[in-house]
Write a structure and sequence with these properties.
CATH topology of the largest domain: D-Maltodextrin-Binding Protein, domain 2
Shape: globular
CATH class of the largest domain: Alpha Beta
Number of helices: 20
Strand content: 5-15%
Length: 447
């Protein structure tokens, strides 16, 4: 998926899943330069070296891959241009492709020695690529620039670690948020955005009474499963075992979450069959009053005449929680086999991390607490979401989990919301399948 454009989000459901599952079939044996599989597993000799913050070696050109092809692209391009202007001996060449293509091409490209030196990927893909020796550990980089858990939320910092080593340097966080039509709220006499189940349902009733017949469209596909995960966590559930051994989203918390989602349709607040992206398009066109979507929609909505506001999603369950993801910088094992490229890649990532306040313009939330507290979000709509960053939840660092989720949880959520299956039965059936796939992945990826 893309967490930065609606088009990429849509593509990220099917082809992205196939790409992630395809990674499991790859047997990466060597990169260019004769690096052995054993060396790749440790990230190459260069990855074990410390980082002193500088690169004074020969001129080097770094290949930099991302999936920032939407409205976020210009912001990233500007940052790369600024870096290049400040570093005479490092030239970073960017290559942005849709996230689905990115994940499909990356492993084979690195294996062939034709991949990037450095890049950015989603947090929930780090473990898969680390397990397949596509990316190298970056503990030395984190230590060298003084990055510690103190500058991040605990969940975000810990999620970048796989089998005791760090594989990602967080750039941002991005979560679901509640967008609402300010004119509709005014017409319905709603003074404040709802914050819990009671106020949310009351708002829906007031909106209907004001003539907005179906104020909150419930999608059956993207981002329905992200809404489900948020509600599952709010109900005290955990969708997956932390060790990657089982899917647990069919427990009482999960069933309650999915029943609530289907209940929105049964109560008439939403049409019965909302196609992918339709709920966002309807909100953008002023046809519906509320939508839950990612903060990556901010810049798209800014370009409209719609009178909109945003707030954290309400706490429908017992405790506040919301699904989130993060873009993380990584270095490939291809680059780690070359001392100069590895050192230059570290300089690039360090600079980007230190200048992540500029990335806030893309609609994202800088991952570093120090950057946020330095005023990076002043005057930006995502400030209200960033204030609740401690409530954001991330999937566990389990290799292959993205593909498993796309094959099992997403169909379960869709079937129940469409009314084709009972929520409890749908979740139980797909959780069983997911557990089997996860057990297979533990064998494939070595536990």
């Amino acid at each position: 998926m893309s967490t930065t454009s609606r088009r990429q989000n849509r593509r990220g459901r099917g082809t992205f899943a196939a790409a992630i599952l395809g990674i499991g079939a790859l047997a990466l044996t060597a990169c260019s330069g004769g690096t052995s599989a054993e060396e790749l597993a440790g990230g190459g000799a260069a990855s074990e070296s410390s980082f002193d913050g500088e690169y004074d070696g020969p001129a080097v050109e770094l290949s930099y891959w991302t999936g920032f092809t939407g409205g976020d692209g210009p912001f990233m391009n500007q940052m790369v241009e600024e870096f290049n202007a400040e570093h005479e001996n490092i030239d970073v060449v960017s290559n942005a492709v849709d996230w689905s293509d990115f994940y499909a091409k990356l492993p084979a490209a690195v294996q062939a020695g034709e991949g990037p030196d450095v890049g950015a990927m989603h947090l929930d893909q780090l473990a898969t690529n680390a397990a397949r020796s596509v990316i190298a550990p970056v503990d030395g980089l984190a230590d060298g620039i003084g990055l510690t858990a103190d500058d991040f939320t605990a969940e975000l910092w810990d999620a970048g670690i796989y089998q005791g080593k760090r594989y990602g340097i967080p750039l941002d966080v991005h979560s679901l948020a509640m967008y609402y039509n300010a004119e509709h709220f005014e017409a319905a006499g709603i003074d404040e955005p709802p914050t819990d189940k009671s106020s949310f349902m009351d708002a829906l009733d007031k909106l209907q009474a004001a003539g907005f017949e179906q104020p909150f469209w419930m999608p059956s596909l993207w981002p329905a499963h992200l809404e489900f995960l948020s509600l599952d966590w709010q109900n005290g559930g955990e969708p997956y075992a932390a060790d990657g051994s089982a899917a647990t989203y069919d427990d009482e918390a999960g069933v309650e979450a999915l029943e609530w989602q289907r209940g929105i349709v049964d109560a008439g607040y939403s049409p019965s069959d909302v196609a992918i992206d339709s709920q966002y398009v309807a909100f953008k066109n002023g046809e519906t009053s509320i939508t839950w979507d990612g903060i990556w929609q901010i810049n798209d909505l800014k370009a409209t005449d719609l009178s909109w506001e945003m707030a954290p999603i309400p706490t429908i369950g017992d405790a506040p929680a919301v699904w989130a993801n993060s873009h993380n910088f990584f270095i490939t094992t291809q680059a780690s086999a070359d001392e100069d490229r590895f050192a230059a890649s570290q300089v690039f990532i360090a600079w980007m991390s230190e200048h992540s306040d500029e990335w806030a313009g893309s609609g994202m939330i800088p991952a570093r607490t120090s950057v946020r507290e330095g005023g990076a979000l002043d005057g930006l709509p995502q400030q209200a979401i960033a204030d609740r960053i401690d409530e954001m939840r991330f999937l566990p660092a389990v290799p292959g989990l993205g593909g498993v989720q796309a094959e099992t949880l997403e169909p379960a959520v869709a079937g129940a919301i469409l009314g084709d299956e009972d929520p409890q039965a749908a979740l139980a059936d797909e959780a069983g399948k997911a557990t089997e796939l996860m057990e297979q992945n533990l064998e494939t990826f070595g536990g």
